[in-house]
Structures
1.
Amino acid sequence: MSGPVRPPLTVAESDGTPTIRPCSEIVFDSGDFVVAQSGAKATITAHPGAGASLTDTYVGFGSAANLLTGSAKLTWDDTAASEQLLITGSNTSNTYGQLKLVNTANTANSAPDLLFYHDRGAGNAADGDYLGHFIFTGRNSVDDETAYYQFFARAKDVTDGDEDAEVYHQLMLAGTMRTYFSMQSVSNSGYISFNDDGQNVDFRVESSGNQNMLKIDGGNDRVGIGTGLPAKTLHVSDGSTTGITGGTEAAILITDDANPRIYFEDLSEGAGDRVMDIMADSEAITFNSLNDAATAYDSQNIMVVNRDNRVGIGVSPDSAVERLHIQGAGTGVLVRLESTDAGASAAPVLQLFRNSASPASSDRLGELWFMGKDAGGSDQTYCYLDAWLDDATAGNEGGSMYWYAKGGGTGRAICGIRGNIQTFQVNPDGGDVDFRAEGDTVSSLLHVDASQDNVGIGGAPDSDVQRLHIQALTSANPVVRIETTDGGATDGPDLEIYRNSDTPADGDDLAVIEFVGTSTDGAGTPTITRNINYARIAGEIIDATTGNEDARLIFRSITNGAAGQEYLRMGGQEVVFNEGSGDIDFRIESNGAVDMLKVDGGLNLIGISASPTSGGATLQVPDNTISSYANVNAVRSDSAGTMTMVNADCQGQTWVHDSGVVHAIDLPDAIKGMHFQIITTGGALTIDPNPSGGTSNEANGATGTYAASNTYQIFNVVSYVSNKWVISK
């Protein structure tokens, strides 16, 4: 206010000092004021919100004319190199949190922005500069402020025009901050990486119907599609549980409860010829072609590979086919072997090769069958070509080939080529005609009976003999002799009884040797002329699995007129006497004792040096000669101060301390069942259950050293439970 006033204005301070009169000018320097009128008097006082003081570190808001005093919950640390804006609060009701950014500009590209600018000054930017860092912290169990999650950005390359950046997201894992995923740009390219630290961290992507649409198992180094428990390096599943627990780890596994398959779509092919698949179906892998939508097959079973080693081309292989079954539908060439070789050598070559590890005479090398249907629709073999190995001797190899044809419903050998005997033979089977070779005194030294399909040596074969019947007139000389003149170290001659089964199975009998004779009425008169099986040796398959084959020999004998009583079996990593639990004794003689070892099958008792007595102990030693010595493992008479015991030293041994020097016995961690003895003859012992200074083991209830000060004493040391010893004398 300025200018003359009438009457002259009087100005006075509220406290009475000083008084100015007259006054022509009043100047207010700053602040807000309140003017109150009382008649001709005007009283001016400071506004209560104006000119208020601002507490150090508080942040004030408002204009210079209306300043707010700030709050302890919003402070600023202005210390150089430690500047910090701190917002403290306990917000639990406002869903937007303690910090909210609002942009009210009415434009499409306006939004609240939060800018992080690392300004190192001109010319100081460098690769690897941190650009910004979000850290989420909280207290741990001991009230330390701990960073649980953070993400930050760095300048990977600050070169002008080639700037690259990288962003890392890290979480606390087992007390260590680990990178869960990062985004990085490198030289005009980039990548997103998950689990950079190589920890046991899984990566999972959910779909609308599968929470494990993609699962990377970080702990097992596996990828699953459709499964949360991948069993191989790549496992694709419809959600069914796999039963696979073994096999190669680096593999692709497809699990489906309905024909798992792989589709191949070649868009370079014409319409209708683009899709093929490989499918698992009915214990086989099939190769098929489909329409372009994969909704129907064009050609099914182009090739079928069965799990039992059978393959079909154009058909699922018949169970009667061992390896390869090819089926066509036309009259053209079904199989073609073609060679483009222009030389003079034979080509192409079709080879039928029987790769036997033990080739022998009469091995059949292969056949070609010519088959067709009969009028009744049954399969018939009308003709076939058969090749045989007659002699496998190196340098003297010989073979035969036979042509067979069917006539009158019966197949016969029409002709044959016998290379080994340089013979072309017509009608080699001769129909129902026997072949017989006579000796000087034996009319049927060799007799081949065609109707019975068997051979007799020394006479006509009986009808109940399947193949070979050997007869002798006396027992003066061997009936059969198998002889070899080989002078090498290998075995020979060999007698092989071979059951050539295509379907060997556990429990199959391989062969039987029977010892057959007659019986009498006790006075020497035969009552049964033959077919009494007095004894029998049989071979039997225990396990026919390749690589795990097991077998046994079984010895049986007639006992009290009852045939087939088993006495002994050997095989399957065991030898068993009296498997049938009969009243059969087992006895071993020594030089001076008939019953050095006697197992009485009727009494269920064992005797050593004599037969056991009924009513006695299970194991009987009538002469009371059983003895047992202590296992004195070592005698310590040296001056070494410490003996460190290990697990192997605590297995029932007896240790002797035979020195006047005080020994320290350091025990291992106690394991239930450990025990040993210590004998001291010349000096004191100290036994320490915790030689490393710990307290995990106890001896007689204490963790400290046990003193065994007496000489000529025996101390028993026993662990009755893990980490606890008992020492007694």
2.
Amino acid sequence: MSYMQPDEYSITFQKWAESIDPSYHSHRQGMVGPGWLPLLVDCMAELKSIGWDGGILQIKEKFGVLRLYISGTTPSISEVVNRYEERSRTVCEECGDAGEMRNTGGWLSTLCEKHFADRLAARDRRGG
């Protein structure tokens, strides 16, 4: 399976989800960095294999961690979602390399060294 390469930090999940599998149906939008797309693809494939209905309510970053809100949850589906959310704590949301939770001036993000430095430099250029 090939991963979509977004040209911006955020993506519209309806379009993204449908590009991965037309049976996904999102009623809202969300934003995460492109480094987490492989996590999402793998998570959704695993969920589909155990009977998930494909309904996406929201996918976002919250407090530096991937958050998936989906329909049709069962205990086994919740376990899969929780596992991937936890995994996101160690994956740079920008590039997918190893990352860790970082404070970028009041905002928590999971980033590798390079993207942490980039984020701080951008903040400093803005005067923040």
3.
Amino acid sequence: MASTALEQARASHERVERLERAIASEFKTEAVTHKARLAQSHRVNRALDEMVRETKRLRSAYADEDGAMREELAGMRPAGEDAAYAAFYARLRDARASHEQRPGALAPTPEEDVAATFHAEVPLEFSGEEASGRYLDLHALHHAFTNAPFGRRPLEYVAFLADVRALDALPRDKKFSRAYADYLDRLLAYLRDFHRRVKPLVFAEKIEADARREFERDWPLGEVPGWADRGVLATDGSGGGVPRSDPPSEEDPERRVPVARPRDLDKSFASADAMADALGEAGVKASLRAAGLKQGGTAEQRRDRLWSVRGKAPEQIDEALFAKGAAACDARRARFESAAKAVASKEALARAYLDHHAAALDATKGNVEKRATLSLAELEAEAEEDDDFVEEEEEDAEEEVYNPLRLPLGWDGKPIPYWLYKLHGLNLEFTCEICGNYSYWGRRAYERHFSEHRHQHGMKCLKIPNTKAFAEVRRRTEARREKTSFFFSLFFGRRRERTRAPLASTLSRRPDPLSYPSTFRTRSREGMMDTRTGHGRYSMTHTL
């Protein structure tokens, strides 16, 4: 029976449906640990691959290129009643013969049918540095980068991880080399393989398609990082470029030096010496840079190089005279842009993968920095531990915390101990009228609030300077009274040391240089001061 086209199509439909049910049942079971989630993802991915293969068989069966299904369907619709019964009994005989050949054979259950492709063990292939997909292993690429002409030496592994995305910062003249192309190919190959092993259910084709679509949109506009000129500028060895078109024979707006066109040199100057005297050394170099020619060598060599291209169009100049990356004519410009676009597209793909795995890249940097601080014994102990872990889930923000005493919460989100609450005096409430009757709990918070924005704003609204003279003042009426006393004492040139004593005020024994006799001696003669204590004999505050 299984040899017929209809039975094969029915079996494929049944298998696809069973795999769908198995996937739904698998997702009902929550995977707690990191390895369990990876294994679950790989099992589901393997089931999806099997469903794709069965679907391809169905498409081939329904296409019916050999006509087997049409022939079978025609045989199931005979012309007369006798022919229909004959066809039915013929198929019945075939079914009985098939069962006689396999006595005791039973149809497999759905669990048995999908066990081979779904519930089998999934091998997780990761290096020790990757720790089951938690980190990236870029040591080989770091070694290749530091030894390449476009790389930097020395460069620590942590610094390489921090700058691995900054491909646009590399020198432009080094990006067209074979070594840089090999480096990009190795980086892309590793990122694709890492993505396949860590996130099998996230299609890499979609990531690359989105990256290519954004690249094709930004490339004509010059918005690709590091390729604003689309690769048609001459490089100066530091990654920058100069315009490929010849500017007019005017002053360079950046350097303020004269720049001459190569095609106009024979019309403007009679000899190379006259040209060098008129342009100067800076002008000769600027003219070479504007034309995309090499700028190296001595002053005489630069002069002769510029004079040798006099009266020539860019396409008539020898290509050996152009700087690396300079576009001389339209054909060469198109060739350079094509090569630059190929390099920039690989950079865009690598950047897209690194952005997608940004969390793993950041975790890798943190792990490398942590391991650098561990001792040998700690590293060995960490290597012996199981690298499986339970991924932290975000706790529900609305979860209630048992806090009947309404104690302040600590750094862990739990109430602080009651003895610590009493020790810091957090049960004491201080209300400041200047701050809009805002309450401060604890003496420390109350004293600190005098220098904070809320109290400063309240003092500013009262048109009172927030100085030390108004410390501990929290009532508006008291602040206005102190303001009057403060400015009155300043007007008469007196200095008063204010105290919080309720019955008297303390005056300084130091003579006041602005008045004679001093305030203390004057009040002593008048019998208003106690010479032993320095306190006034009256219960009112004397404003001097």
